[in-house]
Specification:
It is a single chain. This protein is an alpha+beta fold. The chain is 60% helix and 12% strand. It folds into two domains: 58 residues, no CATH class; 228 residues, Bacterial polysaccharide co-polymerase-like (2-Layer Sandwich), CATH 3.30.1890. The chain contains eleven helices and eight strands. β2 and β3 form a beta hairpin.
Length: 313
């Protein structure tokens, strides 16, 4: 009886033949692979050297709960029923002031006001580099004419030569500002990336100052309005118990105003302040060159296989 051929051995031989053929194709096109790899590396080096350095400055903040703690929860437990008769809700504020501060920090209104208040539209929208010897920003002359002090960029409608509030806000929130909070510790990190390390550091300092001042002003305004309302209620009610509650509330609101004006770190307390970094954060030029080498080699291998396939047809 005739023995069946060893199919496993045949498949092994076929695979071995294919593998040898593969190496022969690669060896025949080795100079193409070398050339594309070198070209990829050269292009990557040129791109990496053309990219300006970006510096990252950041500050570590802690939510300043002490500044916002008051006696409202105790008053709510003791006098909540009486106050409700007068239409006043003493329930403690369950909203997270830290979360509110972070949302304000990233809001269009705050960012636009920040850009205008500190006059940073030019370094935000027209800078293209930084000179470490002079410490001055390199402003793109095709966007902003420094000598004439005016915007000269060519923008497609509806955009104009002067960047709009929406455009500057998008640039700041996308390319410049990073805000994060550690869920376990509650610590907040505010980081700014810019061509200039001194500018990055200055903007972080301003952001911390401004967000504290903004939330403080809001709370002070609300407290003063509450005091005025409570004084009206004291004059309008004949009940001594309610008047006592209102006086206690005025005391708490007055404490809020006092604490807000005493400390500039109203909502966020600085744990680790921002510094002007000495080392860039990006670009990672070694990584770019390695990627160029890899992509050049892959393209060369593909080119060799395509050429061999076309030649075999």
């Amino acid at each position: 009886m005739q023995q069946e051929p060893d199919n496993g051995r045949s498949r092994y031989d076929d695979d071995e033949i294919d593998l040898r053929a593969l190496f022969r194709v690669l060896w025949a096109g080795k100079w193409i692979i070398v050339a594309t790899t070198v070209v990829g590396a050269v292009v990557a080096v040129v791109v990496a050297l053309m990219m300006p350095n970006i510096y990252r400055s950041e500050a570590l903040l802690a939510p300043n709960q002490d500044q916002r703690a008051g006696g409202l929860p105790a008053l709510a437990a003791q006098y909540g029923g009486l106050a409700s008769l007068a239409g006043i809700n003493l329930a403690s504020d369950s909203s997270d002031k830290t979360a509110l501060g972070l949302e304000i920090l990233k809001s269009r209104r705050f960012v636009s006001s920040f850009i205008e208040r500190h006059d940073i539209l030019v370094p935000l929208m027209a800078a293209k580099g930084w000179n470490p010897k002079t410490g001055e920003l390199d402003i793109d002359s095709q966007i902003y004419d420094t000598a004439a002090g005016k915007w000269v960029r060519q923008a497609s409608p509806p955009r104009k030569a002067i960047p709009s509030e929406q455009e500057s806000y998008r640039k700041f929130n996308t390319d410049i500002l990073t805000v994060s909070q550690d869920r376990n510790t509650g610590f907040v990190k505010i980081a700014v990336e810019h061509y200039s390390p001194t500018v990055a550091k200055q903007w972080v300092d301003w952001l911390v100052q401004d967000i504290n001042a903004t939330v403080m002003r809001q709370d002070v305004d609300e407290a003063q309005q509450a005091i005025e309302y409570l004084e009206e209620q004291i004059a309008a009610t004949p009940l001594a118990d309610l008047q006592n509650v209102f006086f206690r509330l005025i005391e708490e609101q007055t404490k809020t105003v006092m604490l807000a004006r005493v400390s500039p770190e109203y909502i966020f307390r600085t744990v680790d302040p921002a510094i002007a970094p000495e080392i860039k954060s990006r670009p990672r030029r070694k990584v770019i060159v390695l990627l160029g080498l890899l992509l050049g080699g892959v393209f060369g291998v593909l080119a060799v296989f395509v050429h061999a396939r076309v030649a075999s047809l």
